[in-house]
Amino acid sequence: MIFPPFRGFVRTFVLICVGVFILEQIALFGPFGDGSLYRQMIRMLGLEPQLALRGLVYQLVTWVFLHGNLMHLVFNMFAFWMFGSLLQDTFGQKRFIKFTFLAAIFSALVIILFSLFDEMSFNTPTIGASGIVFSILIAVSCLFPNQVVLFFFVFPMKMKYFAYLMVAFEFYALYSSNNQGISNIAHLGGALFGWLYVAWFNRSGRGGGRSNWFKTLMDQLHQRRRRKHLRIIYPESKTRYHFEVGAL
Question: Is residue 219 over pLDDT 70?
């Protein structure tokens, strides 16, 4: 099995998450009493929708650096390294950094929106980089659909089918793990962001030039508003014909 280079923002992000996890363990098991410091740390730095809506907007980013346990950390960091490295090489480091933080914010907003209809989620902090990982997973599957990966390190599977399977698992387990601070809705929100971003990325020419998809969309809408009806009346039949012409 060939591992990608461990470099750039991928390495920085992984090291930050590992460092924060060590601080979590110190807060949980260190000489600070009954773990109250750890619980406060999770509540203030995780994403708790009621607090985020009260003004703690920094939680839209900080929640991705915390993890609930060692396996949660290891799985996310390994996936971030394996798939994120490919996306980093494709996008370039600056665009990959932008992608990562936009994925974190988008996933957080999806969690907050979902929590408005679920009281437990509204008062429960969510932590982990899984939303970003799913964004990366879907982005890679869209850009390289026939790339082969080893499912459970054993079964070869095309990337597009692997992504579909993981998303299907998340739908199945949607309500099963939020009580542990790990939200499946965050995974699905991340998957949606990955798909939307690659659609944008492809439309703008895979990063070439400075094509602006939003400007193009607004120009199209502006052209539609400028269209006018041209009415032609034939005196003989008095029949009216209508057609649209775009303003030049």
Answer: no
Instruction: Give residue 206's pLDDT.
Output: 53
Interatomic CA distance for residues 118 and 56, integer angstroms: 20
| Strand ranges (E), the chain | 148-151, 155-158, 228-233, 240-245
The domains found in the chain, sorted by start residue, are 8-203 (1.20.1540.10), 213-245 (no CATH)
Count the Cβ atoms, other than its own, within 10 Å of residue 32.
Answer: 12
CA distance 22 to 65: 11
**DSSP line for 178-197:** GGGT--HHHHHHHHHHHHHH
Residue of 108, 89, 54, 109 whose CA lies nearest to 206: 89
Specify the residue for token string 């920094």: 58
160 falls in which pLDDT band (50, 70, 90)?
Answer: confident
- Predicted confidence at residue 179, as pLDDT, reads 47
Tell me: pLDDT of 99 over 60: yes
Using alpha carbons, list the distances in angstroms from residue 243 to 188, 220, 246: 44, 19, 10
Query: Would you call 199 helix, strand, or coil by DSSP?
Result: helix
